[in-house]
Design a protein that fits this description.
Blueprint lengths: L1 E6 L8 H14 L4 E5 L6 H7 L7 H5 L5 H4 L1 E4 L4 E5 L5 H5 L5 H16 L3 E5 L9 H7 L4 E7 L2 H16 L3 E2 L3 E4 L5 H12 L4 E4 L2 H9 L6 H14 L2
Parallel strand pairs: 1-5, 1-6, 2-4, 2-5, 6-7, 6-8, 8-9
Antiparallel strand pairs: 3-4
Amino acid sequence: MSVRCIASGQKGGVGKSTLAVLTARTAVALGIKLAVVDLAMGNPSTSLHLLGVLPTHTLATHVIGASKLNEVIHIVSTEYGPVYLVPSGRGDLSLVNAYGDVSDRVGAVINYLVDRVGVDYVIIDFPSFEPNLDDLFANVLMRCDIVYPVGIQDPGSLAALKNLHDFVRKGSVSIGRPVINMFRESLGRQWVGVVSKLFGAEPSVIHYDPWLIRWVQDGGGYYGIGIREALTYIIKYVLG
């Protein structure tokens, strides 16, 4: 079993949730038993994509002691099998900030998913956060076996990736192959070169086209280049 985490540092809107949802759908199609922990409290797009609604029992309600462990693990049915989801919700961050044991609770959730549910992988979808300043999520980050950095063609994203890289390198967490969601081709190779220098490995590139968005939303649409690139990255690196 491996805890695999998708993060971007303090830059939001780079496609982490898209990657998490596609990973979940790809895993069950490959016969892999997978769980997703959605940490993006306040912006629960991964939970909404997978579950359709925000349930009463979430990670936050477990953190504050209002929900039992088995109540916050939701089974998402797909045509290939179940995905196990621990959802976040809107306004959850204000709840957990008052309690502060998020890392321990997430650790308990991971142990339950492994020991009782028997999953092969746990995927944690992180919100945007600065790991050097935000202990709440930084402590959870240290529970990951491997972190997959996600960025876009943006100076703020590059700065966020550098901070994430430097923080993770201080701990015992491995860094997976980075990925750039590319919205335009201009200066594309320069961005690849900069990220390659930072991580010591050339990043995978996913062309973030409208078909990729549609595929995440309803599993349909044209099987375009962005979808092929995303699935290749997931199968080769995240689930490989």
